[in-house]
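Recall the central idea of this unit: under ordinary conditions, the amino acid sequence of a chain determines the structure it adopts. In this exercise we apply that idea directly, starting from the sequence alone.
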Amino acid sequence: MSTLLEIESLETAYGSSQVLFGIDLKIEPSQVVTLLGRNGMGKTTTVRSILGLTRARGGVIRFKGEAVTARSPSDIARRGIGLVPEGRQIFPNLSVKENLVAFASNRSGRAQPWTLERVFELFPRLAERQKNMGNQLSGGEQQMLAIGRALMTNSELLIIDEATEGLAPLIRVEIWNCLKALKAMGQSILVIDKYIQALMEFADHHYLIERGQIGWSGTTADLEAQPELWEKYLGV
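Accordingly, the structure predicted from this sequence is:
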């Protein structure tokens, strides 16, 4: 099967301020890939460029072999890219169940698509709180809901921006275990998070970004063998 997502020489700017300077990145089907770096280095801008939310100034983004660089965000989403955004952005005045059902769509035509029942199996806590409003949930529950909402779109690629930011340690473990389970199901994921050692337990490939450029990329084994990279790019 061909490469799922391929980014070549991506350049993105906000007005006259350039943020990305020639980003190259690939995700193969069923891979979990990380994009790691300190705050302000271009991670979220890369995500926004992939989704068409911030238009690329140069380079090309291909999804399933087709260039989507100039496509609209809605068109890119329909093609099979789902987002769990930084800050979760769930609807506070909708119930858990309504937040999930509002996004239900089998975009990838799966024989066994994600349904409300499957999301509740993955996150039993959401099943318990399905009648609660979004603003009545804890931060961890909101993140579970944001992931469940993205799964309900049945996208081929799931992008999770700041997967465990601001969550308690035990909740972080729940989220990582969820990502491990999704990987076992064959879900392709691009994940942004800062807990490198936890990510190395299940991610296949890593990209370290600094000042809008990929400073290093490699496998988990490569990254484990070079802990000096953690300090250089992440301050770990």
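The first strand starts at residue 5 and ends at 14.
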